[in-house]
Amino acid sequence: MSGTSADAVINARLTTVRAPTAGLLSLPHRLLGSAVDKGERLGSIDDPLVDNIHLNDMFREKATVSAEIVRLTDVVAALDSSVADLKARSQRYQKQRVRQLEAELRALKSEIGAAEARGDEARAAFKRSKQLTDRGLEASASFERIRAAQRVAEQELENARQRAAVIGIELQAAQNGTFLGDGYNDAPYSEQRISELQLELSEYRALLEAEKAKAAALDSRINIERVRVNRLASSVLLSNVDGSVWDVLTADGETVVRGEPLMRLVNCNSAIVTLSVAESVYNRLKIGDLAKFRVNSGDRTFDGTITRLAGSGAETIYRYLAVAPSERHLQRFDVTLVVPALRDDPALSCAIGRTGRVFFEARPLDFLRNLWL
To answer: What is the distance between the alpha carbons of residues 93 and 97, in angstroms, rounded to a whole number?
Structure first.
């Protein structure tokens, strides 16, 4: 004698397909019990009134930033052009200033040459006048006049040489880019203006780079927000299990809200056998015991293992299973089996609701055998 179940049913877990977004449901008609594959398209939801205010705000902000980038680019280009013009002007000024100083230096050299000649003549005249004066052949007044002329010539020569030295220093400085002289700074106005514009140029370039970085960040945020809006505007319903359609809770063309249950699917990969037994049999069972399941109107027997002993009144554990317990079932003691071979049988892998009986290896007289042994 072995323990047997009063009833046994092939059961499986249910999974609920819910609306990922709100909108108008497009759900092609499917017969209850029709097979579905994991990843198969079940329907879609479209929402023409999706909230895209934030995306539009970012588009406006991007337009403002783009306009600022254009403005700053124009300012930088204008400053670059001004700096280039001033540099050319400064180079021309330096070139002309060097030419001017070179001409002045040449003129002074000529003047020095003439002054040296006059000095030589004055010295020769002074020498002759002194000789004549010493002999009494020339008046002393004439001698003094000639000596004064000699001194003037020597002074003019010395002044010319000093001016030539000054012009030489100015020329050398001008060739090195520094300008000396009365009424001059160390650099002309164009170079001073170049320094000012280059400072402004650095500031505007920094602002331009900041705006470009802001535009890049906005592009990234816009792309993310666009994906979000597109996901809310249209979503696809996919099956998350290999199984069959158990129940359809909505109809094609309905307006659904986010999270609303749309369809229930049976997960055939979770097929189990649920059954109830008498108290006398239940008290001899334990998790892990072996059992055999035989489908009614069939001659094949499947090996199974007890995975759960829920006892009497086990109504709550059936909330997420396809086949609910009967009142008679709830009056007895609930047992659950895992029967791996069922999932490999094409005819029974998703035969939810198919009935049968379970036979346990534990028998009523086992305690006598234990005493005998």
So the answer is: 6
